[in-house]
Amino acid sequence: MTDHSWIREFPAAITVCDTKGTITAMNSAAGVLFEEFGGEKRVGVNVLDCHPEPARSKLQGMMATQQTNVYTIETNGVKKLVYQSPWFEEGEYAGFVEIVFVIPDEMPHFVRG
Q1: Segments making up each domain of the chain, as ranges
Q2: Phi and psi of 71, rounded to 5°?
Q3: CB within 8 Å of 32: residues ≥ 6 apart
Q4: What are the distances in angstroms from CA 62 to CA 92, 108, 113?
Q5: Which residues contact 5 (CB under 8 A, 6 or more apart)?
Q6: Rounded to whole angstroms, what are the CA distances from 56 to 21, 64, 111?
Q7: In terms of Cα–Cα distance, which of 15, 90, 101 is closest to 59?
Q8: Which residues on adjacent β-strands are paired with residue 96?
Q9: CA 81 to CA 73: how far, in whole Å?
């Protein structure tokens, strides 16, 4: 079995849900990011119940169609990249993962050809 302990302290917030939307795992950074909403105590809660409209309907549609959604946000002057994507186990749709990365104020951009 593969050791996934590195995820716990990975510096991006990782939240995992199953096919019905139930949160099955959160790493430490996700617990901190969502602390005001209960943090890691949200494991076992349906992710759809954590989102108001229209975000709830959008997420519900993404889960139904297994589509990836990527966007940036800024909260209190901190820019973040949000990456939401289906995950699979042995080729079968298993749920959704959300990874939230803080974007540094200054970041190099490379174009490779």
Answers
A1: 5-102
A2: -155, 170
A3: 13, 39
A4: 16, 31, 32
A5: none
A6: 11, 12, 35
A7: 15
A8: 17, 86
A9: 7
Distances (CA, A) of 90 to 67, 87, 94, 98: 18, 10, 9, 20
Report pLDDT digits (tens) over 46-69: 999 988 999 999 999 999 999 999
pTM summary value: 0.90
Q: The tokens of 60 are what?
A: 């519900």
The class that CATH gives domain 5-102 is: alpha beta
Cβ neighbours, 10 Å, residue 36: 6
> pLDDT band at residue 2, thresholds of 50, 70 and 90?
low
Residue 79 identity: K
